[in-house]
Amino acid sequence: MRNKELLFIFCDGSSRGNPGPAAIGITAQTHEGEEIFSIAEKIGIATNNIAEWKALQRGMEEAIARDELKVKFKLDSELVVKQMKGEYKVKNSGLLTIKQSCEKLKTRFDFFEIIYIPREQNSRADALANIAQDTKL
């Protein structure tokens, strides 16, 4: 049964222009690196920070929808990681709304961790965000 194992979820958000057309990329992988799900979605016009937060929120929602109980989120946005951990305050009201949503979602997991990783370790999520950016609707 998949949901008993720790799932590693890599998230990235991008905005071309700040604000500008924005997209998110998410990949969920087992410890062995097997991809369980991936998401590449446009999110409209947003700042880069909003895109990064939306990627986390969407990753959390998808993990919950799939009954994943143990998750470790990996983001290359130090700001989002530190804000989610409460190390930095969220002053922007738009970001605060997303953070509050993520805090509620976090309670649905038996185990939740979020860590910062260097950009080069987040290449799959970055590629998914770029695929979404480049897809014509």
From TrEMBL:
Occurrences of domain RNase H type-1 (ranges): 3-134
Gene3D superfamilies hit by this protein: Ribonuclease H-like superfamily/Ribonuclease H (3.30.420.10)
Record-linked InterPro entries: RNaseH-like_sf, RNaseH_domain, RNaseH_sf
Pfam families (UniProt xref): RVT_3
GO molecular function: nucleic acid binding; RNA-DNA hybrid ribonuclease activity
Protein name: Ribonuclease HI family protein
Organism of this sequence: Leptospira ognonensis
